[in-house]
Amino acid sequence: MEKPFPLGQLASTSGDSHKLTSDLTHSQSLNRPVLDDDVGSSPCPNSQLSQLAIDPSVEDTLSTPYLFGMLIVLPVPLRQQGNRFLFDLQACNGLERWADNFGSVVVAAPVMPEDLAEQDTTIAWRDVATLENPQRFSFLPLPWAYSLKDFVANYGQVRSLLAETITRCRYLQFGISWLIGDWAAVAAIEAQRHRRSYAVHKDLVDHKVILQASRDGSLKQRIKALITSPIVASYHRWLIQRCQLGLWHGADCYTAYGKLCQNSYLIHDVHTKAADQIGELALQLKRQQVTQDPVLRICYVGRMVPMKAPLDWLLALASARKLGVKFQATWVGDGSMRQEMEEMIEATGLGSCVHLPGFESNRDRLLQHLRDAHVMVFTHITQESPRCLIEALQSGTPLIGYDSEYASDLVQGSVAGAFVPVGEWQALAQLLYDVDRDRPLLSERIGIAASQGTRFSDDSVFRERSELIKTHLTV
């Protein structure tokens, strides 16, 4: 067995690190930040907590006494394999864009236990050594501590580690997301102690998601949600009121948090590039084809989890078929509700027209699924800001689904989107019937969707966000 890389040690992608004197007890919790019943945790061997490694190849491009351009603390997990670290593929693109704007970046994130990483089929992993100009990045692995016991055991030393890191980074950005195990929130508290300004970035209204995600759960889960939700709301409100910049991905987040701090901005977290936009020739062929094809092509890209309401999606399709809609539908993704989806497909006789190809890690093939579809049908029941809706617009694929401020804002009142109230899958089936019957209008929807999609690219949105950080955060 390979020797584990010391958790809590800042590792540059060049492999350099330095040793510190203190120990960090890292207990792995098999519990994740969801509302399922608690499960046990198993301890991991003690590991050395190491001081920050100063990679001499990283230049201080900002000409300040700070060693690094920006510290970003995220809930997105790292994966450790020997001395290698892996990170979410799309998140890696974001790190590259941050480094383009800040020169050097320290990324602090929890390390997912390997048994959980092996079970999770929804993450496309990338070796951080393959990042563009990898000398720009250093990674600070933190404990996976989503149980109270593990969080308390590690809190003091992680807090000290984050405090030291904060003193070495010019700009600070924290993706707060939870309560127990949320190291980004702890970093925000430490920034306050050091009188440092910081930005908060969110793409979920977490306290509402907690309640919505528990609606079909057990009595114990619903009670837990009722207790947890107001605590999370108060905690996040307290942290946001003390930040100097709020970056809210999507209109739902902006509405929920925008008034809590002085400088708040509606932003979009985009990882597609301008080159990913559907080409003009392909768009014209798609618009022409949709007026001739008797079969409506439907697609969704995302996890099969309760917050996406995949059973509502299937119920809407089954009802639409009864109304006379001929379609072929594909859900690209995987998740905890796959078996329930398969059982419902069999029970409703949708096997010939609904396909579940599984998780797709290849970006080009994923976008091709979206370009091939006539409509993106979605049934999101929580206040989140999924990127798949932006990617659908960039693919010239109109949005048909449950209403939200986020979705409505993306299409700006145009026919690129049509929505029904959350939970009303019967109304969604009727909407699909109406969309299918008016193919000339659907062709127009496709053209306008592509036009709306041109507003988004990773270079532009990360450049805009970086300028906001440099403007509003004092150093």
Describe what you observe in this structure.
- Helices cover 40% and strands 19% of the residues.
- The protein has 16 helices and 21 strands.
- 48% of the residues are buried.
- It has two domains: 11-272 and 459-472, Glycogen Phosphorylase B (Rossmann fold), CATH 3.40.50.2000; 276-453, Glycogen Phosphorylase B (Rossmann fold, 3-Layer(aba) Sandwich).
- The chain starts with 10 loop residues before the first strand and ends with a helix.
Describe the structure in brief:
With 475 residues, this protein is an alpha/beta fold. Helices cover 40% and strands 19% of the residues.
Chart the SSEs and their pairings:
Elements: E1 11-12, E2 23-24, E3 27-29, E4 41-43, E5 47-48, E6 68-73, E7 79-81, E8 84-88, H1 89-102, E9 105-110, H2 114-119, E10 125-127, E11 137-142, H3 148-166, E12 169-174, H4 183-193, E13 199-202, H5 206-213, H6 219-241, E14 245-249, H7 251-257, E15 264-267, H8 280-290, E16 296-301, H9 310-322, E17 327-332, H10 338-348, E18 354-358, H11 363-372, E19 375-378, H12 387-394, E20 399-402, H13 405-411, E21 417-420, H14 425-437, H15 439-453, H16 458-472
The CATH architecture classification of the largest domain is 3-Layer(aba) Sandwich
Please state the overall shape, judged from the principal axes of the Cα atoms: globular
Whole-Å distance between the termini? Answer: 44 Å
Helix proportion of residues, in percent?
40-55%
Based on CA atoms alone, the radius of gyration comes out at 23 Å
Q: What is the number of helices?
A: 16
The CATH homologous superfamily of the largest domain is called Glycogen Phosphorylase B
Tell me the CATH topology of the largest domain.
Rossmann fold
- Runs in which pLDDT lies below 50 for 5 or more consecutive residues are 1-8, 15-63
Overall pLDDT level:
86
Q: What percentage of amino acids are in beta strands?
A: 15-25%
SS-derived structural category: alpha/beta
Strand order of the largest sheet: 1-11-9-6-12-13-14-15
* Number of β-strand runs: 21
Number of domains: 2
